[in-house]
Every structure is written in C-alpha cells, then in structure tokens.
Amino acid sequence: MSNTAPSTDTESARLKPMANAIRALAMDAVEQAKSGHPGMPMGMADAATVLWAKHLKFDPADPNWPDRDRFVLSAGHGSMLIYALLHLTGFADVTLDEIRNFRQLGSKTPGHPEFGHTTGVETTTGPLGQGISTAVGMALAERMANARFGDELVDHRTWVIASDGDLQEGISHEAISLAGHLKLNRLVVLWDDNEISIDGSTELSESTDVMKRFEAAGWATSRVNGHDMAAVDAALEAAKTSDKPVLIACRTTIGFGAPTKAGKSSSHGAPLGADEIIGTREALAWDHVPFDIPAAIRADWAAAALRGERERGEWLARLNQSEHKRDFERALSRSAPASVFEALAAYRKALATEKPNLASRAASGKTLEVMVPAMPSLAGGSADLTGSNLTKVKEQPLVTATDYSGSYIHFGVREHGMAACANGMALHGGVRPYVGTFLVFADYCRPAIRLGALMEQPVVYVFTHDSIGLGEDGPTHQPVEHLASLRAMPNVKVFRPADAMETAECWELALKNDTGPSILALSRQTLPFQRTDDGSENLSARGAYVLKSADSPKGVIIATGSEVAIAVKAAEALASKGVPVNVVSAPSLELFAAQNKAYRDSVLPQDLPRVAVEAAARYGWDAFIGVDGGFVGMTGFGASAPINDLYTHFGITADAVAEEMLARV
Amino acid sequence: MSNTAPSTDTESARLKPMANAIRALAMDAVEQAKSGHPGMPMGMADAATVLWAKHLKFDPADPNWPDRDRFVLSAGHGSMLIYALLHLTGFADVTLDEIRNFRQLGSKTPGHPEFGHTTGVETTTGPLGQGISTAVGMALAERMANARFGDELVDHRTWVIASDGDLQEGISHEAISLAGHLKLNRLVVLWDDNEISIDGSTELSESTDVMKRFEAAGWATSRVNGHDMAAVDAALEAAKTSDKPVLIACRTTIGFGAPTKAGKSSSHGAPLGADEIIGTREALAWDHVPFDIPAAIRADWAAAALRGERERGEWLARLNQSEHKRDFERALSRSAPASVFEALAAYRKALATEKPNLASRAASGKTLEVMVPAMPSLAGGSADLTGSNLTKVKEQPLVTATDYSGSYIHFGVREHGMAACANGMALHGGVRPYVGTFLVFADYCRPAIRLGALMEQPVVYVFTHDSIGLGEDGPTHQPVEHLASLRAMPNVKVFRPADAMETAECWELALKNDTGPSILALSRQTLPFQRTDDGSENLSARGAYVLKSADSPKGVIIATGSEVAIAVKAAEALASKGVPVNVVSAPSLELFAAQNKAYRDSVLPQDLPRVAVEAAARYGWDAFIGVDGGFVGMTGFGASAPINDLYTHFGITADAVAEEMLARV
Lengths: 665, 665
Hints:
Number of strands of chain A: 20
Strand order of the largest sheet of chain A: 10-9-11-12-14-13
Structural class of chain A: alpha/beta
Catalytic activity (chains A, B): D-sedoheptulose 7-phosphate + D-glyceraldehyde 3-phosphate = aldehydo-D-ribose 5-phosphate + D-xylulose 5-phosphate
Largest sheet of chain A: 6 strands, parallel
Helix content of chain A: 40-55%
Distance between the termini of chain A: 76 Å
Strand content of chain A: 5-15%
Keywords (chains A, B): Calcium, Magnesium, Metal-binding, Thiamine pyrophosphate, Transferase
Cofactor (chains A, B): Mg(2+); Ca(2+); Mn(2+); Co(2+)
Shape of chain A: elongated
Family (chains A, B): Belongs to the transketolase family.
Oligomer: homodimer
Radius of gyration of chain A: 27 Å
Subunit structure (chains A, B): Homodimer.
Number of helices of chain A: 26
C-alpha cells in the first residue's frame, strides 16, 4: 500500500510541516485546557507523521474497516498526538472544535484516549503498560483471524507508541515475552526513547539495556533518531519484513521545539506557558495562530489519509467474493451465535435429568465442551493453570508461533498480560476470549479488568478455587475480599454459580454480556446438584431466585456458589425445629440489584429476617441483608488445611447459619 | 564465615545424603498430606543444601539475629524445601511432628510458607513473583542500614530461590530492573531452571533468553548444573564478589529421583503416589522409612547449622561496643520513636492556629516535612510521581547505586515492584517505608498490599488524586471502586482525611499501625480547613466523629475526605431550611467499625436518617447508613473535565446531599 521507497529530503520537507502541525495543535490545546501533556506529542510528532502518512493502513471513511492497521498510543497521556492525527486525517469525531475543547466535559478529546468515546481510538490508554499489552492481544487476534480467514480478508499490522513508563511496568514484560514467544511479527512498537520521566531524567530510576531486553524476549530491534524522518521511514519499512515482533527505539527530544523546556520533564505534564509557546513557534518557524493549520499542510494530510481508500475498496471486493464472508462477519459480530445458545439449551435440559454433582470449575469445563464446538470464535487460555481452571476442551488445538489456527493459548504465568491480551483480542474482534486463573489472582489482573470494564469489552474470566474451599494451599491462595472488590467495580458482572446447572446458566449470561467483563467464580470442590426444574428457564438471569420455598417462611437464607449447599442444609435443620425459611441462591448480585423492586422484594421480603452465607468478606452484603442481617463468612484471611477442617474452623457451617437465623426469628 | 574452598568430591559425598534427606521429607510429607508440591524441593534440594550448609549466614539459636542472611523461597509452593531445611538445621518451630502435619490446620507447616507463622520464614510466598520482588526490598534495606550503621553491624546477603513462574510474572521485571539500577550486589537469585511449568514444558509459553534478560537489567549471571554441588558451590562463592545482583541459573530436574515423574509436570503439584515413592527410594538409595533421617545425616546438618554461632557471637560483641547501638536498636524496633509523635503533636497545635487550606496531598507533604527529620528510619519513594504525590521532603537525600545513605527512592513507574519492595524493607527492618502513587494505581500494587496485610507489615501507602477531583486526566485515572476494594481487604486501614489536621492525625495513626498496611487516600484539590479544636486530641483515632454538631439534629450527614466540605455546606443549607443535622467526618471506616456500640451509636444514632457523601462507589456504605440511607457518590466511571464540572456533572453537590436528607426527615 505505502510508498515503499525510503523518504527523500524532498519528502521530509513535506512531512516536517505536517509534524509541526501536530506539535502546534498539541501545545495550543494543552495551553487552552490549562492541563495536559505537550511533551510527548511534540517529541513523537515526526515519527508518528511518518507512520500515519506513509505506513499505517487506514481509511477515515470507515474507521471500523476490519482489515485496517491498529494504532495504539500506549503512552496515553500524550493524547493530543492521536487527536491531532485523527483530526488532520479527517476522522469525523475529532473536529477543530473538539481539539479546542481538549479535556473538557463531554468533548471527544478527553485527557486520555478512550475507546468507544472517540472513533479512531482503538483502545483506552493512560494506565501505563496497558496499551502495549493490549496491542499484543490485537496482534494475536489478527494472526488467529488470518489463520481462519486467510490473507485476503485479514492482513494487517498493529503499531504501538510506547513510553519509558510503559516499558518499566511489569505488565510489559509479560506482554513482550508472550509476543516474542508467539512470534507476533505483525506487531511493531515505537519506543519514545526520550530519556525523561515525570520525576526527571530516566537515569534516576532506570539502567536497563532496553534493546537487549527486547532481544532476550525474541524481538527484532533497531534504533533511529526519532526526528530523522527518513530514518524512521526506513525502520518502519524494514519492520514489515521481520519474522519477529519489532521494537524501534526512537531517540527523541521531549517537547521538541520548546526553547527552554525541550528535553526536560517540565514539558511532560503541564502547559508550556505563553512565553515558551511564542518561543516554540519561532523555533519551528510556525507562523500561524493557535488552531490554524495552513491549507497546504491540511492538503498534505488529506492526501496521506486517502492512501487507504483504494485498498479498502479492493478488500471489500474480496470480501464480497469470499466463501468466508458469512463466517467472517459472524466472527466479527460481538454477539455470540444462535448455535451456541441452542447447544446450551440442550445441555441444560440434559443436566436437569442427569443432576450431576460437580465442582463448578468442572461444570464450567463441561459447559466449555458444549460451547467451544458451537462457537468457532470462542478462544481461551489460562495463566499456567489449565488443568486446575479446566479451561481447555479436550482436543482443543493450541495457538502456537507456527500455527495460529488453534483456539487455546498457554499464556504462561502472566495473569496481567493475559487479561490485557484478552482485552486486545476482544477489541480486535474475530475472537471472543475467555481466560483463566485462580480467583485470588484476580488481583494481578485487576488494572486490565478495569480497563475492559471501562471499554465495555466482553472478556470472560474463569476464576476457579474461589474460597477457602481450595483447602491446603492456604491464605495466599484463598480469596476473601475478591468477590467484594470485583463487585465494587463498575460494569463488571460477577457470577458465582451453585451447581452444574447454574454454571451453565452463568456461562450463557456471560456470553450474552456483550458490554463488559464477566467473572465466573468457581469452586475447586464438588458441589451437589441443587435444581429440580427442567432446565428450560435460565433462573440465574435474574441474579437471585428462590431455590427452596417454604410455607409461610419466617426468614430467608441467601447464599452464593458453594455455600448454597450449606444454606439448604441450614434450612432443613431449621424446618425440623419448626422454623420454615426460604433459601435464595444468588449467582449474581449485580443482576439481582438490577431487577425491579417488586421482584427483589418477592425474593428478599423486607419484613423477613435475612441471613447470608458466603465464604468471603461481609463487605457489601449489608445492601441485601440489612445492617441487622446475619452473615456467616470470613472475617479475616484463611488458613492452610483440608477443606472440611477450614469450613469448621471458620464457622461456615449449616449450624452457624441456623443459629444466626434463630437469633432473628 | 563459610569454607571458601570449592567443594571436593568428598564434600559432595557428605552433602548429597543431606540433600536426599530434603527430598525424602518433601515427598513423604506431601504423600502424607495427600496434597502439595514435591517436584520443586526434590529438584532444588542439591543447590539448597549447598547454600544452607556452606553459605547462608544464620543461627537457629536466634532466628531474628539482625545480621543474618535472608533466605527467600520465592517459589513458595515448594514449601517443603524450606520446612525440611528449617527442620534439619534445628529451628525450633519445625519439629518432625510439624513436618508430619504438613498442610494441616494449625501446623507450623502450611501449604505455602507464612511469615509470622513459622519462625525462620522470612516472607510469605506463593503468589508468584512476590518473593523475588520482596527480596529486592530486603537487599535494599540491608544496604541502607549498612550505609547508616556500617559493616560492623550490617553486612549480610539476601538469597532467593525462584521458579520459572516467578520470572514470568511482570512484577519480576520491575524488581530486577530496580535491583540492577541500584546495583544491589548482596542479592543472589538461584533460578530453578527446570524447564517445567504446571501446564507442561515451559516451551509451551516461554522463549525468553533469561540470562540475556537479566544481563540487560544490569545483573551478573552464571549457569550451573543444579545437581553438581561443587559447581553450585563455586557459583555461590563467586556471587559474593559481584558488584551487581547475581542470577545463577540452576538447571535441575524437577522431582529429581522419581523414576517416572522426574522431569515432568506430574511431579509438580501432587503427591507422587506410593509406587513412585518406592522407586524414588531405590533411585536415591534412601533406605529409611518415611520421616526417619539417619543420625549421621542429622549430625551433618547440625554441624552446618552451627556455622553461624561464632559469627553471631562476634557480631553481638561488636554491637555492644558500638556507638550506634542505641540508634540501631531503635531503627530495628517496629514502633516509631517518641520523637516523631512529639513533633507531630507540636505540628497539630500549630495547624489548629494556622488553619491552612491545603490539598490533603500537600498536607501530607507538610506532615512528612515534620516526620522525616524526627524519624531517621522513615524512608520513602514514589513510582515516578514524586511531584504529584508530594512524597519527597525538600533536601531529602536520594538512595542511589553509589550512595545508599539517603532516604528517598525514585522507584520508577513500577508500582507493583515498589509495593513488594516496601514489604521487603519492612520485613528486613531498620527502615520504615512509605510509598506513593495515584490511588487508581492501587490496583497495580494490590497483590503486594495483600501480602503485606497478611504478613502484618507496616507499610504506608500515600495514594493521591483520590477521586474524580483529579479532573482532566479522566476515568482511567479516577478511582471509583478503589476505596471499597481496599476497605474490603482484611487488616488494611484506609484513611481519607478531610483537611490538613486530619491528614496529620491519619499519618500519626498510620505510623502507630505496626501490624499492617495503612492507606492514605489524598486529594489533588485544595480542601478547606474544617477543625475548630486546639489539635491536642487525635479525633481521627476513633475513625469517625461529629465534626459539626446541631441542636436536636434531625439527621446525620457522614462524609470522608474532600466531600466533608460538601457535607458541611449541605448542613448549612439544611439548617437555613430549619432542618438541623450533624456532620460526621469519617477518615477511617475500619477504625470506626472497631469502636464500641455506644460510641458508634452516639456518632450515627440508629433512629436518625443518614446520608453519606463520598466521591466513590456506594459499595460497602450500607453497613453505616443502612439500606434506606441516602448516598451521594459515583455510580459508574468518571470522566475527563475540570474538577468543578465533574462534581456538578456527577451530582456530588451540597444540594444533592441536602435533597437526600430532606427526602428522609
């Protein structure tokens, strides 16, 4: 697509003013907002101009063209760089007014780039390390879709601009080692090697040989002067033929052009100030008022933006003639196909008959056996706990560096990178990711889960070993506060199914949740089958429901997951003492809270005493049981012992639940 | 101390049976428990034996000898390795009965090694990557204490055994790059390079050139056959003269000795089984019944354990003659010195007069100006947000690779590594760490915060920019659920002070909290001074208190941090409408919940309607305001805009609070 000849001096003469337009917009927008980060856009303007004007495959007329290159500004604080690029190349969202409204309420130009808010932004960035790691997922999804649909439909690259901070973050290690292992050669990272961090020179905290580090991880590397546009051009061109992911170190000057702040941390995160801006205009010979871009420069950018039009037309023609068209479009659809819900419906009916007693992690594994064959875009993995999470379907082919046609990924012990990678896969499309680890290690994934929630990405987390029920591994591996901390996060749905039927139901609800992460909290230990219905209605869909109904109940016991069995036992004991109570199973408190008041009151009548049992912290439960409600659970960390000893030791027993109820009726 | 001559064949002949004793104990204890990880202890038994028998400086007679070497089993799942070592070297906690009780309730031999539970365990491990990162903090604290007290009192090493999984975790990148930057040459990591992870061969997920990776991070590296004890011995000896941290790759066979499971993931995380154990006994020529260690081998271990006795005696003599004795012992004491509390008391009196309006982050900075000079062991840092967190006191000297005598550390953008490092510093002793980043990035630190809570380590987290009040940086940087998720964690105290006085009080409480992490959630924005008392009593100590008292109040508004000012305004508005209400400031909900019922009821009378205001999620607040209580806060993610626009946009205003109250009186 691109002009593959190296840049000439003439070409640089055309490109330099295009880069200066980015610098001007960045410094003027930050100045107007009295807030923002001018240094990085000014430093990387040259390299970004070469990338966008000569290499990036995109067409502003269809920002969602599936075969476009993905551009990830991992250093999201430099958001004016991408806004300037989107504006100058004609993305409809980013008008000059929006640039003027940088960082204002409701503008398309928020402080950090937000996916879903501004068309053309491929992923939300800002929390460092996330962009580069999400990009690995995009590059992986590209190769997986390529393996399925061929070069004709899927043949694009993922380009990243990353900062020193991105590379200091631990998640970058997980991401680059995974990318190197999987030989994701369609991934190119431009490292803004400006030797400046917020605290000052990177020498204050960093001595790593970054090139060697990436080479150790299996990457190809090169180094350029980031202001030498011909050199950048040549490096980008060379990157396209690599058989490994590529790091291009771009030595730049932060705040390039600013007379006294260039090369200093003072240009990083604050407006330059009026005097400095005057000086910058002089230094760059930029003789235009704020937000004024000369027509000739606009024309050059417009011409660059047209590069993708023809290629997109050709691609569309190929798509329309492709035998894969229907499958391709179905894979790109965010909604899971009807086939998988049909398979699940049949499976639930079978469960109602078989009534198997299964650990919910095992039930999840069985549900995957049903779903994976019925949903080709479903792709999973685990952070080196495959046999514990039961995330791999028998015979599910692996994704490897030599064959991307599989649908199972051994992520290694890289929980955080895995979660970001899953975000990237979901953002890219064509695959619908689910990933597994122990629930306690949700903490390792948390920043990426949060970004997925913010971006409304449908990643399913299979978090097994969800309580002290995991037994001997002890308190380091026993989640206590994790359910609460995940329920507290906006736009996350937490599911904790009580038996094999609820597990199938919760998986169905997770697949139907197209607008955010779903968490499945699953037991290590075997759980008795609880349900007596025929499996035709998804009872978990309302979040909580009356599992065992008593005549004239005097109270309600509400439980989740593995503790539902304890609640049922407690209810039986109470019944024998003449105290009939209902048992409510609550696989998803978020879904229950979203029901109307009439339903909620029918399940948890306000005038009946309520006791909850969950082998976790009470934190958050008062909203359902009231301040005076009873709670049987954990008040501190767990301990190492066989499961039954632990439940007894921590007093999470049917007797304790019954006692709490008896104290209230 | 150690015999510095390389091992001879004769020596290996003595050491091999000592290592086999570890193997036998490991496989037999796991078998008895029917749970555990025999493979790693059996694989690393040889290297660990060389380390403990010849190099590690320790004396079982005083496990807390301050100048002992620290041994960190980062691969904590191999806990039987350290239990066997502690047992064989005569640590009182780990008797043979305790070994027999491996992984049983209340035993000293839980599934993963737990600091504080088993003497001789230097840090709790299990969550991968934490041990090696915590060890960096220990090695740093050693150098800092050495700089202060000299070689005579502080001159020891930190030895780590780390697994493939430890090195895959992102936190290991942060830790090793920091260690390399700071040239922590007293840190030696033995990498158990067994080429096996849980999912199978490490080839499934890993292609990194680990040696090159560590060299890129500024480490010295060497490689040995981990079963060649002379080679291990030589490598350990060589490591002692390095001017950089040292990685020793020990190529081992997981489950060494097991006839069919050695070298396979099947030996990793499950008992070997009776037949395999019989075969292992044959292969190792270990002709003893389970848990029986021949007297000769016991004697060899006992002799090895005696190596430290003389050296400790000499050290004690030096301590008793040292001019630093008093300061040294004071620095080692977990309790903060009286001097700092005296300084704080004077500062609080001054505040009561000055009544400054300050952002609580600025108030924290001013409090640090008071504390740092009064407490020499106080050492801080930030993850590259020094000027934003205001964690550095003017003229506070830096800790650098060439001079460890400072007390401020530029951690770089390494939040997770920083938190683990702080745990290690606290565990080591001699320094009392505080570390800073934005509150939203508490998520990056979370696994380490949790371990600190479990280990009861007094790390203070200075988490600034604690709400949408940070403004333009937008939702990626605006915590919403973080207060809830931290409050849900056992043994963590969360403080959110409302003004400069409460900030000083909360810092005082944080310093007094010797048994777990303290979180200071601090505002970016300026907060009006609220207090009218003379500053002599720490009102924050009870968690919540009546800040503004009304005659015959008809309701109570409860608020934290920056929203206390909104609560005060709402109360004024309500008063003008004839609805007198109390205003409660609640800087710590944990401390408040720990008060007796009479006090709690006096602050939040059960019969008065309650409205809470906090620019965060409601999750968890029902416990204080009741299900019917009013709440003004966030219901989803934030947005990018100037602060005032955001508070208005999200309806966190005095008007909204007043309305919630009016609807309830």
